[in-house]
Amino acid sequence: MRHLLSCTDLQPARPRTARTARRSWQRIWGLALWLGLIGLACPPAAALMPGEHPLSLRHGARERGYIVHVPAAYRADRPAPLVLALHGGGGSMDLMARDRLYGLVTQSEASGWIVVFPNGYSRLGGKLATWNAGICCGAARDRGSDDVGFLRAVVADVQRRLAIDPQRIFATGMSNGGMMSYRLACEAADLFRAIAAVAGTDGTTDCQPGRPVPVFHIHAKDDDRVLFHGGSGSASDTHADFVSVPATVDKWARLNACSGPAQRVQEKPGVVCEVRSGCQGGADVRLCVTETGGHSWPGGRKALGGRGSPALDATAEIWDFFGRQ
């Protein structure tokens, strides 16, 4: 089932005068009459059963898609946590939902959490999509796509269909999707409890979160696209000089007013994890660095072949981090 007209589509633009306000509402009233929706302008969305559901909504004059995975354990009388999983630049919602690559569907089933795979901005029917995450990436950035607004709309639409715990809404992403997670932390801290970014640093230039946001960053030291110490590496086609991992972590330690030094909390062959604690509101900043894996999701597979670092299961670590918030 596809959602073609949202409640927000029936809201007029802010009027400049009383006369234009009256005309604006007259147009909305006429549209509602035409659609036979008087008294039902915002009907309850169809509830979703366990399984995978491709949906869409209209935002910014564009039809945009997303996939909802509802685990078998879901119960309408028990509000569930919600995780938005954002694909990398040039990817799609279908790619991010591919379980053999990221294991997010399996994790959804194991935890009972709902996972949503939104699609970035695309001029090619959803393919080769990107997110406007600040300095990156592609057409989404160049055309100023309102991706924060779109993702807010996705969450609102899911909340109309499923019982969601409003205090446990999270965002994670790969590469450009990880960068978009940082933008959500900056501009939608009222909605997202915490974020986790994999292989994508914070590219926002103006970040003023409304509250401290717990942050988890995962990166390979040998990432050849979003370089660990900054720069675009082999991703020079993005025309973006990516921020380094240390600068990203330091930025969020400042934003969250973390007073404690970095403390190593995990070390084993191939991976080291540390945390900045003593942060305002308990919003710790966690970092895990793998020695190898390149530009990938640790514990997963690359879409074009190869694997991420076997030293860390990024999906399981992210769920554990979110579960402690």
* Count of beta strands: 10
CATH superfamily of the largest domain: Alpha/Beta hydrolase fold, catalytic domain
> Could you tell me the strand content as a percent range?
15-25%
- Low-confidence parts lasting 5 or more residues at pLDDT below 50? 1-6, 8-41
Order of helices and strands: HEEEHHHEHHEHEEHEEEH
Task: Please compute the radius of gyration using only Cα atoms.
Answer: 20 Å
Give the helix proportion (percent range): 25-40%
CATH topology of the largest domain: Rossmann fold
**Given the helix and strand composition, which structural class is it?**
alpha/beta
Overall mean pLDDT: 88
Query: Strand arrangement, largest sheet?
Result: 1-2-4-3-5-6-7-10-9-8
Shape descriptor reads globular
CATH architecture of the largest domain: 3-Layer(aba) Sandwich
